[in-house]
Design a protein that fits this description.
It contains nine helices and ten strands. The chain is of the alpha/beta class. The chain has a domain of 135 residues: Rossmann fold (3-Layer(aba) Sandwich), CATH 3.40.50. Helix 3 packs across helix 4. Bound molecules: adenosine-5'-triphosphate (ATP). Adenosine-5'-triphosphate binds next to strand 2 and helix 1. The site of adenosine-5'-triphosphate has 11 residues, from strand 2 and helix 1.
Length: 257
């Protein structure tokens, strides 16, 4: 059996009376492209934040590449890359400066940082914008420079929260190519998304989350089961099939006020 990249046991987190994560157990295999899917408010971001050492759990354990994240967060953080939701970047640096700074923070030698930054900027089609300040980057460019920063130290596991949100199809294709190449080398990608078609075409492993719990996890074909698409399987798993789609909104449309 291959080693698990991520192992989560009985993970809990509440914000006041709102329980965001209610006893999550997850085992994600190494070397896979893993999709964490779930409706809005399911607890995906909260789970990823606890798994990556950004948010302390109320209860439960998290192991990444065999190490307890909350016993020694710094040690684990050196081995992972993270593209968090609502990524905050150093806006007054240029894209290249941001990578140079990130690389030095990661303890890489300057020449290596320069080499890797040049290659990542090229592959991600940011070479032309490398001297522009990050504050002037578009949403898609921000995702791409964030991804470059997360990959710079060649992490073993990469966590991405909604990496394709606000990204045009050309940039999405570029990001996808980089990630496929990365997993082909044995590394693991864990990403959250609402876009089922994307998850279905990219992932070999899926975890479905709703209301703070995992509803299903396993190889894509297993989670999809008999359903024609992952979207269908997802709607059934989260109990959204047949939900009223707004029949009360009889005033909407038709031009009368
Ligand atoms: N800092 C916070 N303070 C209070 N409540 C929070 C906080 N962060 C998350 N929550 C609540 O926890 C629940 C799970 O939120 P979370 O952001 O983890 O869901 P999500 O699956 O990532 O949703 P989305 O797909 O909409 O981004 C929601 O009910 C949310 O309102």
């Amino acid at each position: 059996m291959t080693q698990a990249a991520v192992r989560v046991e009985n993970l809990w987190k509440a914000f006041g009376r709102q329980v965001a994560v209610a006893g999550v157990d997850l085992t994600l295999p190494a070397g896979k492209f893993v999709g964490l899917v779930g409706p809005n408010g399911a607890g995906k971001t909260t789970t990823l934040s606890m798994v990556t050492g950004l948010l302390r759990p109320d209860r439960g354990t998290v192991e990444v590449v065999g190490q307890d994240v909350w016993r020694d967060p710094a040690e684990v953080k050196a081995r992972i890359g993270v593209l968090p939701e609502g990524l905050r970047l150093f806006e007054r640096l240029s894209g290249r400066e941001l990578l140079a700074y990130t690389g030095r923070l990661r303890g890489l030698p300057g020449t290596e940082v320069d080499k890797r930054a040049t290659q990542l900027l090229d592959v991600l089609d940011l070479a032309g914008a490398q001297h522009k300040l990050v504050v002037d980057y578009s949403t898609g460019m921000r995702k791409k420079i964030g991804l470059a920063a997360a990959l710079l130290h060649n992490p073993e596991v990469l966590f991405l929260d909604e990496p394709f949100e606000g990204v045009d199809p050309v940039s999405a294709q570029i990001i996808r190519g980089v990630l496929e190449r990365y997993t082909a080398s044995g590394a693991t990608v864990v990403f959250s998304s609402h876009v089922m078609e994307l998850v279905e075409s990219l992932c070999d492993w899926v975890a479905v989350m709703a209301a703070g719990r995992i509803r299903a996890q396993g190889p894509l074909a297993e989670v999809r089961g008999e359903a024609p698409t992952l979207q269908q399987a997802f709607l059934e798993l989260v109990g959204a099939n047949g939900r009223d789609t707004g029949s009360d909104l009889d005033w909407l449309g038709g031009g009368t006020r």
